[in-house]
Structures
1.
Amino acid sequence: MFLKKKKIKIEAVNPGDREDKREAFRYIFSRENRPSLSFLGKSVKLINISAGGLAFENNGFSIDDQDRIHLNLDIPDAKKKFVLTAMARISHIDRESICRCIFEDLDREQEEEIHRYVLEKQKKDLRN
């Protein structure tokens, strides 16, 4: 006796079809748990982070403002803490007054640690 296998239709997903392609690789902090950092001498709360950059509320900044930032990223279940030190430059300020920054000088190891941080934070959120 033979069983007929159902044919599975597989459709390619065009990344251009998504409204925000970066969402899968970006961690969005809850309002209650936003880490803060210093940018040009002012304290700002992070909205989100990815290996490409981060976002925070505008506090009188302008496009192309840049600063070296230091951010403690507590990676869940990691044996050691990771301190991100990088040059962040504001590339865009949107209508909601959110500064979108890009990292200027990350090395490969820092990128991988941020990817790991984002993944572990997403997994922790899913478990909760």
2.
Amino acid sequence: MYVNLLRQKAYHRLTDDDMGKIIGVSRNTYNQKLRNGRFWPNECKAFCMYFNKPFDYLFATEGETVSETGCKA
């Protein structure tokens, strides 16, 4: 699971519908992509641009430590 992506979602008080709209899919499709971890590159880029965060930060998995600048600690 992408902990930092979910933290950004919570911080900005976005719904699953909102997250789907950011990447141009339905709420159900967003949920499915989140569960299986299969976002397309253009969807990852859309999230990075929306949240103004680097890919390495937003899509770090549990157990990985990545700062908001994208540097691994």
3.
Amino acid sequence: MLFDKSEIPRDRFLVRMRVVDAGDGMIRFQCRACDHDTGWIEDRWTITENRRGQPCPRCNPKSN
């Protein structure tokens, strides 16, 4: 074996918000972990990106 698996750098787990409702160019996301709701916002993502979900701003604080 060339490398030990414990040496492989891993990204942190990303908590994603899921689509709650969508229609007419607007969309709502909600986080299942912290219950954060975006309210109605403009849908500027593709269908694939919406299905994947958006990162939750509360559960995934930006690291500096």
4.
Amino acid sequence: MLWAGNTTACDICGCSGGLSAGGLFPQVQNNLLGLRNSWQHFDHPRGNFNGKSEVLKDHIFETDLFLRWFPRKRLQVWVNAPFRVVNRIETERITSLTGIGDIQARAFYTVIQPDSNYHKFRHFLLAGGGVSLPTGKYRQRDENLALLPLGLQIGTGAWSLIGNAVYLVQTQRVGVQIQGDYRMNFENEDTFKKGNNLGAQTGIFLRSKLFRNVLFLPQLSYRAEKSMSDMEFGLIRPVSGIETQSLQLSAECFGKGWMASVLVRKPIWQNSPDEIPFSGMMFQVAAGITW
């Protein structure tokens, strides 16, 4: 019988592999160049073993170099280049991986955009998508030469197509932002296909000024994600697929020639096979220049 007794941790993903469209700022129409740093941990249930060593936690740190560029008024291009540090903590060892992850390139068109910043009621609609490149390593092993799960690897080894849509409604002080995102993953060279991802998010934000030239945008959001089952050799992997819900609190500041943001995401619900680790809180800070 599959998965009876102790589970082999090398087959368990350390990360839900979800997709967030965070970083799309319809409220501010500027070119951006910056760094985004995030930290997240995953707690393993009892019984996940790597040989005789029990797996306890996975820690994922990511530094993301991002660029937003407006080649035209309604068209924006995003490029994200992540550098990942992954640590798996077990009772007998700690395994660490580092390297450049999968680079993403996306383009968005502003379908609806008001002509003036002085409207009391404004709304935006952005739609677009892009591609995730297989630039990160995905066949790395631990000290016992056991292949680590794909969710713990720096990259995926496969191409992905990404689609996003963002709708925003705001008055002079209060706004609501709704977004949806979808990632279609393709098969890598090991005939492994990571499950496609579907996400939706809604949030309310305030628009105010801390100082005369500093725009302050705090936001409270709810996010739901679903990762479909993984496929290997054309068959569904028995321990795969996950649904999550989370609350997110963020704040963004835009000054003359700079921007900064902070974000905290807390998972509130997870539906997955018992062997899959539970995601902990995620913290993120970002800073950059604008022009």
